[in-house]
Amino acid sequence: MTQEPATQTKREEIDLFTVAEKGKKTVISIGKLIGRFVTFSALLLLRYYYLTIIAIIAGVFLGYLDYNGKSDTYSSEAIVYAYGPDNLICEQTIAQINHYLQNGEKQKLGKLLQIDEAKAKSILSIESFFGIDYNRDFQYDIIDYYKNFNAKDTTKKIVPGYLFLKIRTRDSDVNSEMLNKTTTFLNNDLYFKRAFALKRAEDSSMMTQYIYEAKSLDSIHTIQYKNPKTAKNTSSSSFFLMNEKEIKPLSPQIIQYTSMSHHYKNRLQKYTKPFTIIQDYSSIAVNEKAFKLKIIKWLFYCGLICYALCLIIFYRKTIINFYLKAKNL
Fold first, then answer.
1. Residue 234 φ/ψ, nearest 5 degrees
2. Which one of 150, 153, 217, 282 has the largest count of C-beta atoms within 10 Å of its C-beta?
3. Domain of 49, in residue numbers
4. Residue 228, pLDDT score
């Protein structure tokens, strides 16, 4: 009976050792195949070096034409805070504006945002992105540029209020005007105005309540300080420590209420419109037309064509024989 578990353990060890050996051999064989492929490809391109040189020259030339044939594209970003409106509805509104741009309805866009039609034609796109919070501290950790946010994923949360706008134009001077006109359009929307008014009334009510609570606690503590004898007759649920020789108020609650009242007061003073531009990067618009990326792209395409031609020339006899045999059949 005691030998069976020991025998089973040895078999398991042997099986694990066998799997490890097979895995090692597989990795080695794959590495050898990759090495042979790289060596063969290098020798093949060197053998037909004239095709390789032609492919390099063609890639650089086509990359230059691709770069020089397109006008400059400028992109800039901005952070906008929505005080009251929901992030998803704001994103849908921006998406509708971008829909006009993608469909070429520049004239309708110009009337909607009150932008000159000539300037509207230079606008390529405007997009909005969410700030994603991972550690639940109400601060954005990353910006969802790829728009892969999943509402069912409980590990991520949209930071409320923050919108990250990205504008792409052919004229860097239009970026700032486009941002201002967009925020003006959003601020004049009736739905956003109502949401802003409701949020402002809510914060004002909360500020008043916190101020009242802080003053009430402060008055209670003041009375207890002035009448220490009455403090000893208070119940056990009082805000004072009865076992101490000196009466000490539990002041953290007053500090907390006062801090919260200042928080809401600052919000009411800071955000006087539904949408407020926090950071504007329009003045430092980035030129997206990268010369190196165009060269690399066309070198890759020409390299693939060159490699295919080299293979056809190298195996031309085999291809011809296969074709003749297939024809005779």
1. -75, 165
2. 282
3. 18-69+291-328
4. 55
